[in-house]
């Protein structure tokens, strides 16, 4: 999988770039034909630390990560890494066809339709991402 990380902070950019090869390998995305842009931006949806989108026009994935409001330190970098790992699980879900976006903010997960009324922590794709994010980060940092 080809990817690019964009951030106004060189420290953040280098750190997140260093994690990407491990995340891609751990999630089995090496042979994915779609490109990925990871963008650290304050333009994330309200109340969210990150978001994953499929950009149909460009036939690629876009991951948005919210930057910290205050000066970047090790704890904030790990928080951003955890958010990136979470969003990379969503990239895998989309790439492997486990999850699909439907109209009206509905999702298809493993062949079952879920509407927007399903609460965030009851969404199976979120449970999957939360269950994997810490392990992905720890393995990436240990490499």
Can you describe this structure?
This protein has helices at 10-26, 74-95, 124-142; strands at 3-6, 35-40, 50-55, 60-65, 99-101, 107-109, 112-114. The chain is α/β, with parallel strands linked by helices and 143 residues long. A 4-stranded mixed beta sheet has the order 1-2-4-3. The protein has a 3-stranded antiparallel beta sheet with strand order 5-6-7. A hairpin with a 4-residue loop joins strand 3 and strand 4. Helix 1 crosses helix 2 (74-95) and helix 1 packs across helix 3. It is globular, with a radius of gyration of 15 Å.
How many strands? 7
Series of secondary-structure elements, N-terminal to C-terminal = EHEEEHEEEH
Largest sheet: 4 strands, mixed
Average pLDDT number: 94
Kindly report how far apart the N and C termini lie. 19 Å
Strand sequence of the main sheet, in spatial order? 1-2-4-3
Strand content: 15-25%
